[in-house]
Each structure stands twice: as C-alpha cells, then as structure tokens.
Amino acid sequence: MIKQLSKALTASKSITGWLIDETSTHATQAFYVMQKLETTRLVDTREYYVTVYKEFTDGSVAYTGSSSFTLSHALTAKELEAKIEEAAFSASLVKNKQYNLVEGTKKRSWNQKPFPYEPLDLLDKVASTFFMETEAHLRFNSFELFHTTVTNHIVSSRGVDYKKTLQRLNIEAIPSYDGSENKVELYRFYNYSKIDFELFRSDAQAALSDVTARYAAKAIKDVSKVDVVLKDEDLHSLFENLIEDYSYEGVYRKMTDKVIGDPIQKDVVGEYLNIDLQPSSKEDAFDRDGVLLSPIKIIDNGVIANYYGSNQYAQYLGIKPSGNMPMIFVAKGKSKYAAMKRKPHLEIIALSGIQIDMYSHYIGGEVRLAIYFDGKEYHPVSGFSFSGNIDKCLSNLSLSKKTVAIKGYEGPKYILLKDMDIL
Amino acid sequence: MTNKFSRYLKSKKKLVRSLIEELGIKYPYVSVLGTDVAGTTITVDRATANVLPSGLTESGFVIKVYNGKAYSELSTNEITKKNIPLLIDEINRLAKHEGSISSVKVDVLKEEPLAKRFARKNKGKVYTTEEIIGILKGYVAKTIAKSPLVMNVRLAIETTEVSKMFMSKNKDLEQYYTWSGPRCFVLVRKDGNTKYGYDGFGTNSIEDGLNRLAVKIDDTLGVAIAMLDSTTPVPGYYDVITAPSITGLIVHEAFGHGVEMDMFVRDRAKSQEYFGKYVASPLITMHDGAAATYSVASYFFDDDGVLAHDTKIIDKGVLVSGISDALSALQLGKTPTGNGRRESYKRKAYTRMTNTFFSKGKSKLSDMIKSIKHGYMLYQTNNGMEDPKNWGIQCTAQYGREIVDGKFSGKIVSPVVMSGYVIDLLNSITAVSDDFEIIGSGSCGKGYKEWVRVSDGGPYLKAKVKIG
Hints:
The structure holds 2 protein chains of 2 kinds. By secondary structure, chain A is of the alpha+beta class. Helices cover 22% and strands 41% of the residues of chain A. Chain A has 2 domains: 2-214, PmbA/TldD fold, CATH 3.30.2290.10; 219-422, no CATH class. In chain A, the strands form 3 sheets. In chain A, strands 1, 2, 3, 4, 5, 6, 7 and 8 form an 8-stranded mixed sheet that branches. A 6-stranded mixed sheet of chain A has the order 12-11-10-13-21-20, with helices on one face. In chain A, strand 15 (355-357) and strand 16 form a beta hairpin. The longest helix of chain A has 20 residues, at 197-216. Chain A is globular and about 75 Å long. The mean pLDDT of chain A is 96. Chain B is α+β, with helices and mostly antiparallel strands. Chain B is globular, with a radius of gyration of 24 Å. Chain B starts with 6 loop residues before the first helix and ends with a strand. Chain B has helices at residues 7-24, 84-96, 129-146, 206-227, 244-256, 262-265, 326-332, 365-370, 422-427, and strands at residues 29-44, 49-53, 58-66, 71-76, 114-120, 150-168, 171-190, 193-200, 236-242, 286-288, 311-315, 318-319, 340-341, 350-351, 355-358, 374-385, 392-404, 407-413, 416-421, 431-432, 437-446, 449-458, 461-467. Classes of the chains: A alpha+beta, B alpha+beta. At the A-B interface, strand 1, strand 2, strand 3, helix 2 and helix 3 of A face strand 2, strand 3, strand 4, helix 2 and helix 3 of B. Strand 2 (36-58) of chain A pairs parallel with strand 4 (71-76) of chain B.
C-alpha cells in the first residue's frame, strides 16, 4: 500500500511534502488466571499514519502547515485522493513557522534478531518458568504475556526510506500471597528485549519474595523523618520528570525559564547527575520524522548541557535536531549499596506510583511495601506515605555504583534521598 | 463529522456473517467485533497549531472463538474475501495450540438473539476545522492579553465518532455515537516561579464545548495565577471537602477498580468478601454504567455485545453489586453488566468502569464549608492509583483551598496527595452535597495499561483524609 499512497501523495498539487509511517504489528498474547490459561490472542495488523505538509506564505511570513490522517484498510483511488485533499486543506490552516523536513540519505533498514522460539511455545515456556517458582499460597493470580514484533517503515517526499523491526516481551504479573490472616498482592510489569530463562526465574523469585514481605509488613511506627532509598522504575519516573521541560518543544512553549548552562542541582553536597538520552537499541535507529538517532547529553554534572526532541521544534530554536529518543541513561554513581544502607533508612520496594511535581518542588508517594532499617534490624512496612522537597533531594543525592537496565532507563539501581517526611 | 454509522463496517457485514458461519461449523461460539472510530484533535497555542487524528482513531476487527476449553481471539484490520481462508487458518492454529499449562474451566458464552441499531449524533452545529482553529486562536489571544504573567495558553478539542458492530450466531448489533472533549492549559510565571492550571470536560456537542471552553479558560487562568502563591501542604490528617472532580477520583480509584469482577476471578479484590456489608458511610450510594448517566462512556453496547446497564454498586453504604465483562460473568455464574471494554481492537476485553459516580445527597455546600474548623477544599484530578486487593489509596488533587473557621483563608496548597485505607476514607464521609457533576474527560488504565475513556464525579463530599 506504500506504493499506492506515495503515488497519490506525489500526484497531489495541494501539498508540498508528505511522510508515510507504516506500522506492522505481529503479536501473540496469553492470559493466565490463577495460573491456568484463560485466553490466547493473535494480532496481525498493518496501519498507516500519513502526514501531509504545505508550505505557504501569508504576507511576508513563510509557514509550514501539516495535518495527519490514519489508514487501516485499502481505499479506492478516489477515496484516497479525497482524504489527501481534506488533509491538505487542514494543513493550509495551520500557520506554523516555516521549517524543513528531514532529508533522507539512502534506503536503510535495521532488524532485531527474532526471539529463538515459536511465539506460542515461548509464552508457554515463560509462563511455566514463572509458575515453577510458586507454591499453593504464593503464586501469580494474574499473569499476562505479550510477545510483540513491530516494524516501522517510513517513507517521505524528501527521500527518507527507513525500516526497523523491534521485538519485545512484556509481562504483567500479580504476585499474590494467601496467609491465614490476610491476602496481599503486588504489581509487576516486565519488559524484556532478550530471552533469558535465568532472568525470568530470578524475577519470579524476587516478585514472590517481595509479596511475602508485604504479607509480613506492619505499619511504620515512631518515624517522622528518614532517608529513603528509591530504585528501578521509580528512578525512571524521577529522571524523566527532571528533564521533561528541556525538550525543544518544552523550551519553545516556555515551559521552563531555565537555559543551557543553568544548574538543576544547587548547593550540591552530594553526587552530581549526568543524564543522556539514547535510542532503545542500535536497531531503534530513527524517529518518526526520519531523524537518525545518536545519544545526546542533557545534564552534565548537574548542569543543562543540551535540549532534545523533534525536528520541527529544534529548527525553531536554531539547533540541529537530536530526534526523539526513548531511553534515559544516567551515569553510575560513586556510592556502594551497602554504604547507602548503613544508617537508618527506608528502602522502597513498591509505591502506588511516585508523585513528582517539579513546579511545586514535590516528591512523594503512598508506600505499598518498604523495608525499614532502624539501625539494628530490618522490618517490612506498609500503609504510609513519604514526601519531601525535590530541590533539597537533588542537592544531596547519593547514586549507586550498581546499575540497572529496564524499559526506558539505564543507570544507578538505587538513589538515596535524605530526610524525607513520613506520615 | 459524518453523523452516520460507518459505511466501511456496513460493507463488511456480509463477509463477516459468512466468516461466522464457516467458523461456527467447528467452534461452539464465534463472534466478530468491528470498530471504525474516526476523529480529530485540533490544538492551538501561542505560536503553533496542530490537526491530528484523535488518539481513539482505529478501524479493525476482533474474531473470537471458543474451542470447548478456552477462548481465542484474532485481531486484524482486514477482512476480505481473499484473506478469509488465511484468517481461518490463523484462528485454527491458535485455538488448537496445546501448551504445558492447563486451561481454566469455562463454559460457552450464551447469547439471546438480538438485532438492533443505535445512534446518537452530535448536537448543534458541526464546525469546520477552519472555524475551530479560528475560535481557539481567538481564545488564546484573549487569554494572553489578560495578564503579563501568562507564558502560554494551549487549547484543544478532540472530536470523535464511534461506529461499532457486534455479530455472532445470535447477535447483530450496530452503534454510532459522537463525543467531544475540549481541554485547556494555562502556563504562568512570576519571578522565576512557574505554575499552571488545566481543565477539561466532555460534551456531545462541539458547539456547547467551544462555548463552555471560553468560561473554563478564564477559571483556569485564575487558578494558575493563584497557584503562584501556593505552598505544599504540611503532612497530616485534615477535614476536606472534595469538589466533584475529586469525588470522581475517589469513587473511581478507591472503590471502582475493586468491584471490576474480572478481579474476583483472579482473587484480586478485597470487596468480594464484603457483599451485603457496610463499606462506606450510609450517606453513600454509588453507580456505574454506560446507561447510568450521559457522558463519555455512554455507549449502547459493550465490546462483548452486551447492552449498557446502570449498576448500583453501593446502596446507602452497603456493597450490593460488582460490574463485569461477559467472560468474567460467565466464570462467576453472574449476568454481565455491559462493562466489557477494549483499549482498541488490538487488545483483550476486560471489566472496565464506564461512568462512575456517587449519588447526590441533601447537604448544602455552604453548610459543609462552614462546618470545617481547619481543612481544605480539594479540586482538579491529577492522578490516582488503585489497590483493589489491599484497599490502599493514592489520589492526587492539583490544588486545595484552605478553610479556616468555616471560611476560605485565601491560601492555596499544591499538589495534594491523599493516601490511606479505602474503607476508613469512605466511612469518614459525614456530608454529601445536593450538587451533582460528571467530569467526562477522563482516561483510565488497568494497572499501567489498557487505557479507556471514562467519566466520574458526583456531589461535594466532606471527609477526613491523610494528606502528605
């Protein structure tokens, strides 16, 4: 269908440029209820996201208008022409400052190696590996597996013709513990880009161990202020919030008054942050505009080093576009995990969801499970909240030497936030 | 906006019927859900504009079969005469796959014969893209001119028209409905202090949406400027009054997820131990349903082909019912309540909330405010997270206005993160106002995925909550 689309778009006199993003999705999904198979699913789709561009002037001002539409099935030539003309008209109403579309180099493609199993067999093996670790009272009450292969093929009027195929295996697991007094559960979501049954086994064991701790958890008593250790997904959310406003679009929309060279950490007595953005893998080589991706440093020793983002807004700031990249990379810290945990502290295992408001300088959340160290002993605790001032946290950060790689984040596995309020 | 059921889906009905008949020879249950959702989101701010497809835009089919043990589904965006043999091969491959893990024991879905067409069109004038951009640009310029503190104003309106058909051996259903979601965001800055206000709502009239948006922008600008003097609240327990948006957040996150009965099948909901028991103050009555009120989730039938319901969940403090999709209801031996919803045709159906609310009470808001010695009135949903098995609660309001000795002190706090134990919160409700508002602009995930559009709301509530 790309040929039919590009022919019709090229023939249109109403537009000055176009870009087609063809997304082919092949997915196999399995849903287990109380560790028994309930539903299996296949997804086999091909969809198109088409953007038309129209360069025009109004008075002496040059504009690049654009408008997009989606296609999920074949259209007749007449129907397609009508769609393009409708989008072209919308584009002519969009008075965005002039910018240039990404120029292509040569036809290129990047492919991640397929997982080495037939998808339905793989899902069965993965589920068996997780369930192998369970007991009658300690199991996964809900377990959902998603094996997804997505191919993006983008073709544009400026010679972009890039294709990438990425694979992933996602699991949503609900580890559950049935005790004599109560039943408890936790929420876990895993994203794997390679098949490693040892890793699946250790993730299953960790999830079951955590939910066992939640069963044993008690309310925290007589603690109003304590150092807090955050890890993994919560760090991804934290760092994502820290750099969110420094995209070209954020800066252009005046979301921040900070500029390159300004510090995001002030009066630093702890460790400095170094944050990069990267593609998710070497095969994740281009973004939706056709910008070829390479890592970019956003925060250099606590100072804003670069903005990042899409082709259009980069040009508005007069900067070469980095492209949109999904992976936050944070340089590992100097602190040993054991040293971070030497004094009384609270290590967060599961939050309802970390709450961060950079404009109100707030960080906090409701704790579903944490391990409290009182200086002598460790206690699983639950059912309270922590909060603090994020600027104060950033001035006195400890970052672990130990690193972790999860979906969208690679960097220190742990950070230590000082003197958080407990309620 | 066509204001008509999808021509594309209509054109596929014969083929779909023949596919059902062919698969029906082998499988005791076969159904096909067809979706064709069109829509546009128009966004305008200080310097740019965008005309993009609505996030709900999709067109495709879900073919579902039962092989005597479990259910299998194939999502595809093409059903043609040519590819039907291929689709059947794929379904057969999926349905006959024998893994090492046994299946749940589940019966065949039973359906009464039903053939119906439903339609609900956009009310009032249908605006062109040009007209909408012009109106939004005017609003942006006017708002920027109102204060030198305004850094940016971003306005959007999403218009959608949903066509769905559900066909099985016994059913032939079609529905068409429209919805619009206007939103506004105002960014202000003073001496390096940046704050923002936002709001959104739902309506089945673009005309009404654009008119009401003008008022919402002014309110939002006022909130954003007031937020410049906001502080974070001192952690503690407070008497609060929740505005309908926060009432909706509580009803949805604190209790709604816990009565989604696919959670019962998975032994994931504490509420299943509480049927017939008090779970809330006797002042509380709770409903959910696509037919319970008129808002963003007011469809005519769900993605399982079950007609819309109005389910009373809590009656004067007592838990009386849950909500369910067809497959969960089947496993529990219950009647489905029309709550089977998919994020898209590419995803599975789960039990999902629709329009969820607490019913209004008899108290006057002014009396409720007067009754507070020291506390906050909480506004504007930010986010929330469910914990259906352990009844933890986390609900974040964008801001709160301080009340001292029954009067607003003028002090604003932000953000307001409420947490605690669901039952404690619901039992702490001591007044329910005689107001009622549904906010029809929400999105809800199950866990961290499966996003669907929902509404929630109700009256003002007076309760005691932990803020911190």
